[in-house]
Every structure is written in structure tokens, then in C-alpha cells.
Amino acid sequence: MNLLLPRLSLCLVSFLFTITIAQESPLITRIAFGSCANQNAPHPIWEAINKFDPQLFIWMGDNIYGDILKPIKFIGKERTLGPWKNSPKFVPSSEEEMKLRYAKAKSNPGYSRLKRNAKVIGTWDDHDFGLNDAGKEFDHKVTNQRLMLDFLDEPLSIIFFLSGVYASYTFGPSNRKVKVILLDTRYHRDPLRSDGSILGDTQWAWLEEELRGPRSEITIIGSSVQVISNLSATTGPVFYMESWGRFPKERERLFKLISDTKRNGVIFISGDVHFGEITRYDCAVEYPLYDVTSSGLEQSIETFFPLPLRFIVRLLFWYTPSTMRLINDNCKFKSCTYGQSNFGAISIDWNANPATMRLEIRDVNGHTVLGTNVSLSELQAQGSNSPTNPPTKGKSQRYCTLEVELPGTTRYRLAALIYFTFSVFAMAFVGPIIGVVLTITACVYKCKLD
Ligand SMILES: *[C@@H]1O[C@H](CO)[C@@H](O)[C@H](O)[C@H]1NC(C)=O
Ligand SMILES: *[C@@H]1O[C@H](CO)[C@@H](O)[C@H](O)[C@H]1NC(C)=O
Fold first, then answer.
1. This prediction's pTM
2. Helix (H, G, I), strand (E, B) or coil at 9
3. Is the Cβ atom of 341 under 6 angstroms away from ligand 1?
4. Which stretches are transmembrane (predicted)?
5. What pLDDT, in 10s, does the model give residues 238-286?
6. Ligand 1 centroid to 243 CA: how many Å?
């Protein structure tokens, strides 16, 4: 019985989603997506998204900033920064406040226009889940799930069957089907550094069913946090980001599931990190897995810095090693990341032979700043019984080496640079102070003697 009940609700959920989608099957050729949209900002990016004219828009999380960021305080009663901090930097806001923020986001004129012309679906990340970096322990999650589904105009009835906001949708006529699977990486996630679960048992069982389900030419798996890139391995120990890479067992399980279900044509989309990046991993399954990350519809990393310092951000991106980042001639900057306002754009040319997807990150003017073309024939397992196509497990190969496998001198070069710079500055400031103190002490001692 215990086993049957979740199973039954799982079927019901799949059934509910199937009926809503079965009626609509227009050919999908343009999909846009994005994440990290502070509801208080004006969002000129919607204009570029509307110009791209997507049939489908996917929210990838941090669709609003629901939690409250407390001011940075080193000293005083409530200290939010430093090893001596005694107060959390983020606190959840009330249900009323969350509602107001969603209302503000929903009433943005550019977004309203998009919503009239495109189907809008989505998942959430930590700030709209309700608290920075939060997981399954967060006690506002039930209420906030209701508010989030309400924002998306999803039927609230699904809440009775579903804990979390994961869902799947299939679009398009037969032989040109696009399936979108949206994961919930928050509701069931174990604490960071636990190497526990991201999805939880029920969502894993559901995902397996979805991947084994009817064939689709393209399967887009949306995860709020990055699946392929594990930048934390090269930015640590200075700072860490959230990603599937931080849960290595869970990430292996995901790749194995794609392999085992023999699902072809899978690509990932993600958000969260406040910059745009396209990554690929050639040695996870039998074909290259792409992860297109668009982050910062509005909250992008360069906007956190004053204009004259923004080039430093790009320089640091370029300097930080990455083994999975797609490097090609379509990048606006040499780093092949993009730290300004951006959205993800997927265009599908079904008439090309073979059918081809164009994966792009576009800027606030709609110009491509990162991009690549991927033909669907590239995203097919070759079949394990074909001796002419052995899996390309070569450790030195680009897009195949894990970040943690880099030699220490390369892997930690960002940390080395930052700690070195920090020490030089510290010496430059602290050195003279020590000098003055020593001189005065020596003088006082000498003066006393005299
Ligand atoms: C990602 O990086 C973290 C931090 O260095 C590391 O603990 C983890 O094992 C890495 N994951 C993978 C899949 O390499
Ligand atoms: C990629 O596809 C677009 C059309 O979707 C085409 O205009 C462009 O030339 C292609 N680029 C390459 C390098 O094949």
C-alpha cells in the first residue's frame, strides 16, 4: 500500500499533464528561457525576448526574489559577514510579501505581452522557493509552491498530487516532438555538502517514467542549477556555487538513467549562476550532453560591479579554468561566458536534413553572445554493439575531463591569484602600520631609558 499510493498519484499526475497537452500540438521552432529576474528592476530584456517571438518561454528559477537580503554588517549586534557572523544574510519573507512580489513580476508590461503570445511554463530556484540556498528543510515550501503555481497560472489541483513543482510537457506533431521535463531541485534536496539526494525518491521514479515514456525527437531537461559545469571545483576554496556537480552520486545517477532509458536527443537548460554559458560533456552518455545556462534576465554578475571594474569580471572568467565550457568563434567575449543581462534561445530547423537546433545566449538587444548549432543526428547513441564507435573516454580530451581531474596548479590558479593579491594588499596596508607601531614602541622604550 505504501508503495502503491505514490505510484498511483504518479500515474494520475502524468495523466493530468497528458490531457492538458494532448490538445495542443503546434510545431515548436522557437523556445526562450531565462532565470534570475528581480521584480523591482525594469527588465528591458523582455523586449528582446518578445522580438525573438518564442512559442514557449521557460522560467528557470529565481523568477522573483522572494527572500530578504539583510545589509552587510561586519560589526554590531547582528553581524551578517565574516567568520564571526551570528545572523543569516537572507531571511524568508511573509506570504503577503511573496504575493506582492509575484504580482509585481506578473504585471511587468514586457512579461505580460510575452504571456499573451507564448506558452509560459517554469520551475523555481532558491530565491523564489523562498530562501537562498535552501532545500527540503525549508518550512515555507508548501505555501510558496502554491504561490509559484499561481504565478504560472498552473492548475492548483496538481498540488494535491505533487510535492514540488516538477512537470513534463510534450509539444509538436509526431516525428517533430519536443518534450520538456522540468525538475524541482529544491523541494526534496538534501543539505549542501551531504552528497545526498537532489530530486528525492518520488521525483526520481517520475523522471524515469518520463524518460522511458513515448519517444520525442528532442527532450529538454530543465534544472534550475547547472548540470554539466562544476565551476566550484576551480573557484573553490574561494567560493562555491550550487550545481549537480556538488552532488556527484546524484549526477552519476542522472547520466546513468539517460543511458539506461536509451533516451536520445536530450539537452539540459539551467540558470542560477548570474551569467550565461554553454557547456558540453562528451563522456557522460553515448552522445554529447549540452547544458545551456542562461542566468541574469536582470540579476547578472557584471551589474553587481561598477562599470569601470566590469572588465575584471571578464578577465577572471577567462582566467578560471573550465573543461566543459564550449569555446568557439560565436562568443562575444574571450571567456565564452556572458555576465550581462541575457536569455536563452533555442531555434529548431525541422526542415534541415538532419534537423538542427541552434542553441544561443542572447543579450538585451537580442544579439547572439554565445551560440552553437547541434544537429539531432549528433544526439543519438550509436549503439553499444557497434565496434566502430567505442565510447570516447579519453581523459585528456576536451569536454571529457572533469574539472576535479585538472592538475592542482591549473585547478587552483584562481584561488592562488586571489590569495596572492589579497596578501600583497594586506602587506601594503598592514606592513606600514606594524612599522609605525614598532617604531613608537622602540622610541617609548628608548625614551624611558634616556
Ligand atoms: C565538483 O566540485 C566539487 C568541489 O570541488 C567536488 O567536491 C565534486 O566532487 C565535483 N563533482 C564532480 C562531479 O566532479
Ligand atoms: C547555424 O544555424 C543557423 C540557422 O539556424 C545558420 O544561419 C548558421 O549559418 C549556422 N551556423 C553554422 C556555423 O553552421
1. 0.90
2. helix
3. no
4. 417-445
5. 999 999 999 999 999 999 999 999 999 999 999 999 999 999 999 999 9
6. 9
